[in-house]
Amino acid sequence: MSRKNIAAGNWKMNKNYEDGLTLARNLLVHSKASEALMILAPPFIHLQGVAEIIKGQAHIHLAAQNCHQKASGAYTGETSLEMLKSVGVTYVILGHSERREYFEESNELLAEKTNAVLESGLTPIFCCGENLTIREAKKHIAHVSDQLRSSLFHLSAEDFGKIVIAYEPIWAIGTGVTASPEQAQDMHQAIRKLIADQYSSEVANATSILYGGSVKPANAVELFSQADVDGGLVGGASLKAEDFCKIYESFNTLS
Ligand code: PGA
Predict the structure, then answer these.
(1) Ligand 1 lined by 213 (C-beta under 6 Å)
(2) Mind listing the pLDDT tens digit for each residue in 37-84?
(3) Residue 161 and residue 203 in contact, taking contact as beta carbons nearer than 8 Å
(4) Domain holding 86: CATH number?
(5) How much distance in Å is there from the Cα of 152 to the middle of ligand 1?
(6) For residue 65, how far is its CA from the centre of ligand 1 (angstroms)?
(7) Does the beta carbon of 231 sit less than 6 angstroms from any atom of ligand 1?
(8) How confident is the model at residue 254 (pLDDT cuts 50, 70, 90)?
(9) Which of 52, 53, 191, 231 is 20 to 30 A off residue 107, Cα-Cα?
(10) 1 domain residue, yes or no
């Protein structure tokens, strides 16, 4: 995958089915298609309904918020990649900090899930990021580097080239506190350098690196205009069509 501008909306565990479909319809009506990708990650049971609404819209793609690493079988309550593919999902968010924290997803498990997503032909959106204690101890770059090394650097350059990275500092998620554009740029630059050192500058320059953590219409342009920030993974502000459309359209104002 070549480097792209992306606005991805992570609805998390919000909205009932009807409200979810209304949101998808409103996004379709109010967003102006552009070169940038809009990715919607609704809850699992909304996926098929949203897929039908966005059908034929080349700029809008569907993501799952998680998946199981095994192909099928006795895993009560889980959802396989084959099931996700069969309703039109093309991206899978992996390693969101909420899954790491509340569902104890380890770097090792995330390596397995990454392999499974790539094998199924879907695109992982791999999340990484530090908590406030790690940031205050100035160990954030080492922490994020370790997350990427442990879960992704076993991949071939070809497979790594298919991944989207999302840097999401935990202290900025759902808190209203956004990383400053400089803090985001510093980390994104460090991630790109790490990828260049591990693979090549071609692979690094082709990787889309999204920022997540209290992205809003008011700060999207400034964040996305940083040299190494290719877009955003948006939680709260993706639940309002007007806000998410503004975030998506903020790429149009970048030179
Ligand atoms: P937020 O969430 O935009 O509500 O901070 C971001 C995320 O968790 O992906």
Answers:
(1) yes
(2) 999 999 999 999 999 999 999 999 999 999 999 999 999 999 999 999
(3) yes
(4) 3.20.20.70
(5) 22
(6) 12
(7) no
(8) confident
(9) 231
(10) no
